[in-house]
Amino acid sequence: MRRVRAAGVIALALTITAAADPAATGIRFDFKVPSLAGGTIGSEDLKGRIAVVDVWATWCGPCRMVIPHLVRLQDKYKSKGVTVVGLNTDDDGMTPEGKENVRRFAREYGIDYPIGLMTPQAYVELARVMGFNMEEGFSIPTTLILGRNGMVIQRYPGYFQGQEQEIEKVIAGVLKSEEASQKKP
Questions:
Q1: What is the CATH number of the domain that holds 90?
Q2: What is the reported pTM?
């Protein structure tokens, strides 16, 4: 059922265009989920880094469009302290078969960044941060950009044409701002 609701919202979200997200100021996305590689991954692991957190599923067409860009984005900016984390929402993601399906997908798409598996608690936290109503479902991909302090810089509910460039523009802007503030006496 979640898949159907999410797919319907995705279609609507395709028309959304990005703008500055002043409503995100002061919001922290606190999560801790099982990692596909073992152990856990969470917001505490991202402190001190600029993080792009992408909530996705293997069956999601727009997710498949964004992921290759995120792989390139991490490669381009990782030396500047930027990391990407994928949070998978597949219904069977916690089962051995589901985990293997996510691993296959990650290999196929060249995902070399950490992948977490969404939990009910992480869904509640995502809904809080994004302003989603849990009863209505949410759109994927949902992407958040977190500052080095863990605060949300930008939120993207769903996919829109040009989102990949918009994410990179935000990252480049944050890095440029950091660089300029370091040059001030």
A1: 3.40.30.10
A2: 0.84
